[in-house]
């Protein structure tokens, strides 16, 4: 039987140095690229976000805005006189919006929903209050009450 000869490629020193350099570069890239990609996706290690640091909230995350304790009194003071109150012995619900109860408020007006739970920027009621269109009569809703309404809507506008 004939002996088998194993032929191994021979490397010149130039080829060997190039291979070592390419291997080291490849290893370095394999380690650095995922780290860089992670920073882009996750954000900077200092803040944990990709943008500027968020402003501190005045409401603790665990303290949900209460409809019964905080929102209903605002609606009672600024909205119900036109949207559910009585005037000259008759109930007054302009645009069929009755804000005397949670259910009435969430039912909306003859034009549809006025509150989009979880989406304050697309809630018509909040937009009209912020723009100063509502209330039409009486004092405007103070900024701190507007912020409570915004937070309540953002938290899902729950009946709590």
The proportion of strand residues reads 5-15%
The 3D shape can be described as globular
The amount of helix comes to 40-55%
Tally of DSSP helical segments: 5
> Could you list the spans in which at least 5 consecutive residues all have pLDDT below 50?
6-16, 18-47, 56-60
Instruction: Please give the number of β-strands.
Output: 2
The main sheet orders its strands as 1-2
Short summary of the structure?
The protein has helices at residues 13-42, 67-78, 102-107, 124-130, 143-154, and strands spanning 83-87, 90-93. By secondary structure, the chain is mainly alpha-helical.
Write the layout of secondary structure elements.
Elements: H1 13-42, H2 67-78, E1 83-87, E2 90-93, H3 102-107, H4 124-130, H5 143-154
Antiparallel strand pairs: 1-2
Brief descriptors of the model:
160 residues; mainly alpha; 42% helix; globular
Describe the structure.
This protein has 160 residues and is mainly α. 42% of the residues lie in helices and 6% in strands. It has a two-stranded antiparallel ribbon. The radius of gyration is 32 Å and the shape is globular. The termini are far apart. The relative contact order is 0.10. The model is unreliable at 6-16, 18-47 and 56-60 (pLDDT under 50).
